[in-house]
Amino acid sequence: HPVDHKDIGHHRALGDVHLHIVNLSAHGFMTECEHGLGRGERITIRLPVIGRIEAHIIWVHEERSGFQFERIIRYDDFVALLNELQPNPRLRARR
After folding, report:
1. How many whole angstroms separate alpha carbon 3 and alpha carbon 86?
2. Do 77 and 32 contact (CB within 8 A), yes or no?
3. CA dihedral in degrees (72, 85, 4, 68; nearest 10)?
4. Which of 19, 21, 28, 90 satisfies CB 3.0 to 4.6 Å to 68 for a cystine?
C-alpha cells in the first residue's frame, strides 16, 4: 500500500536513522531515502497503532530499500495503521 510516512528508526551501532516509508504491507515496508544501511542490518521503528517493531533489510537498490518485519502485523492492526498513514482514503483497503 502506498504511504508517505517519515519515521526515525534506531540502529544499534548508528543510533537514529531517518526513514521515508513509501510502501507498506503486513510483512514489511519500502523506504526511499539514503540511510547508509546494508542488507541484513536491523532497525527498530515506532509505527502508529503498532508501536515498536523490529525489521531487517532484505534488499537495497540505489536509494530504495526493502525491510521485513520481525513478525507479521495482524489484519485489524494493519487496517488501523493504514487508516493513520494512507495519504489518499480511496487507496485504503476495502473492508
Report:
1. 5
2. no
3. -10
4. 28
Can you tell me whether residue 88 is helix, strand or coil?
Answer: coil
Examine the pLDDT at 22 and tell me if it is beyond 70: yes
* Interacting residues of 51 by C-beta distance below 8 A, sequence separation 6+: none
Number of H helices, E strands in the chain: 1, 6
DSSP classification of residue 72: P
Enter the pTM of the model.
0.85
Q: Is 87 exposed, middle or buried (0-12, 13-18, 19+ CB in 10 A)?
A: exposed
